[in-house]
Specification:
alpha+beta, 7-stranded mixed sheet, 5-stranded antiparallel sheet, 23 helices, 27 strands
Length: 771
Amino acid sequence: MIDKYPQIQNEFNEFSQSDVTHALQISGMAIWEYDIISRDVKFNENWFVILGYGLDELPPKTSTFYQLLHPEDYDILKDAEKAHLIHNPHGILEVQYRMRTKSGKWKWLRNRSKLIYDEDDHPIKWVGSILDISRLKDSEHQVIQKNQHINAVVNSLSDIIYEIDEDYTFINCWVPNNNPLHTRIKSYKGKNVSDVFSRTVYSYFKNLVDETINTGKPQELTYYSPKFDKYYLARTTMIPRNDSFKKHITMVVQDITSIQKTRNRLEKNEANLNAIIQNTSDVFWAIDITGNMIIFNQAFDELYYNLSHLHPEIGAPLYDGFLLDETAKRWRLIHAKSLNGIDTQFSKHVHFLDGRKRFYKFHINPLKNLEGEIIGSVVTGRDIDDIYTSKKQAEKAARLKSKFVSTISHEIRTPLNAILGTCHQLELNNKQENLNEDINILHLASENLLSLINDVLDFTKLESGKSTYKPSHFNLTHLLKNISQFLRNLATNKGLEFNIDITEDLPEFITTDKTKLHQILTNLLNNAIKYTDKGMVNFRVTSNKTSKDKALIGFEIIDTGVGIPKSDLKNIFDSFTQSSTSFDLQKGGTGLGLAITKNLVNLLNGEITVKSTVGKGSIFYLELEFDIYHQKMKTTEPHYLSEDLEGINILIAEDNEINAKIITRLLGQWNASYDLACNGQIAVDYAKKTSYNLILMDIQMPKKNGFEASSEIRNLNIGNNCSTPILALTAQPDFSFDPSYQEGIFNGYILKPFHPDNLKSILLTHTKHSA
């Protein structure tokens, strides 16, 4: 190929053709030529070696070249050729690009080429050489990455880094880009330290450099700059070198003004804290890992003396007898726990040598040093005897009050159930119009009495903290329809229009405390019906999906009732508060209904507001956020009170004759079959012989109570009632907290007194589910 270009061969006239060929093979350089007229392309053997192909595997065509060229480099190559032809047609064109090898990898190649012209200065050929520069490119990439890494590290720090030689000249300067002095510090390179810093700072730096070079060890110095009111920390380290040039060191300068000023404040705070500890009435002391005293305050000194007639001493062991011998072992065990990182607190009576006894609360925590290592225990103690005594008295009074309210409620509910049941029967069967008014008065008085009892019990439960959040998954639309169905009957009986409007985008299933949500909505709707004598009650439900898993749901209750004066609105949710309107006072009540509702709303993390105008009505707006339950649940449509219980067989266990008559009459009117047992033993005997769809079990009965009878029925080896739903009949208002109830024997409970419609709805639910 060389002999075809005499001008090239002249350059190698001292070498033979074979010498040149061998030299090219050794160098790994490929040469090529492209005939502009014939468009023939020639490559030497190294071209195929570079790309990993055999000599007969790559056709010598321009199309082959462009097929192997990286797509991103095509335009680069074409642009370079175009610029060369315009600006330097007789010069040498150098361009770098990537080619795909036989293995599929990309290699970086450097192409140097030149146009060959004829005697008339017309271009006839391209000739050129190709060299594999992939390793060079990799090295360049690594250097770039390394520099980027160094710059990133420097910019992530707030420190300034200098490289200084033994003559105190700045060789390099690294400073973060966001430093206000970035440009100025960069200009230090090549200058002497004495040229850029004051005499004082120069002396600091000079001494550091000298000490580092002389000792070969890292040095550091903290200094203060009055001019800028700043503290700096300079650290120097020797740079290892293998040549005979001047010695170099790195100096890292850190602005520690905030750290130093914080340290100064901490020292001041430590003095203040020590003064507080010494003057506090709480006892305070600390011991090391061996049990010796580290620090104590005056209050502990006095306590220690009153318990042992000794004074504590720093460095001396803690005297075992200062809290009596039986307590000393316990203290040592607690100290051992503390050394293992465990916090402990307990309360105990402390017995003084003069016969006094006081109740103390102690906190024992691990004592750690600045490195986080546990070096002992720190103890604080407080005399809470007065608080303890008051608390015990308050707890005793609360228990007595709760027991009294529960007992009175139970005793009132049982006869009240009979009164309400009888009222219902009189309303259904009365044929004498002159008795209607008396029956209505009796019914209204009974309902008011029940409402009073429920309000007091609910308030007592909330006040004592027994009301807790119990979430479950359920169909919200079905719950709303059930509530509306029951309350529509109350509104209709008063001649009121009752409307419910539920948005279409309401989540199908939600997770919350279903019982509390039911009580909140029932309270508000009952209130609206109670204080509205004409017009309507509207119930609107809207939904706003705040995320994939949560929905903000608004409940709006609008009535055309008596309204609430503006002066009463700010206190309407307070306990024992009623509106001052004469109409409101005529309705009676404890003034606890809205207070209970507000507390329940708080338990569900919601908000409730009210707007009202006297004589025009009120609007209560409740907003709650619920978790959306995405899994499908097996649900049933709400039962309607027009359904009867025909074909349903129920076992009733009730020892109160009047209550038994009320229940059996109702079941008879609803076409249900039933058996009546007057005690728990008879109920068990019935369950052995007959299969039931549902069992209603009174709790307080002779021979066998409701718990005993239900437990025995569940464990029967004969009969088919071991899985029959059992509902407890009880007048105990906090029955759900009873440990026996929580064992799972019962499927639910019915609280006496019950409304016939409510009883029927519960029976329909449980009998349909068990069918």
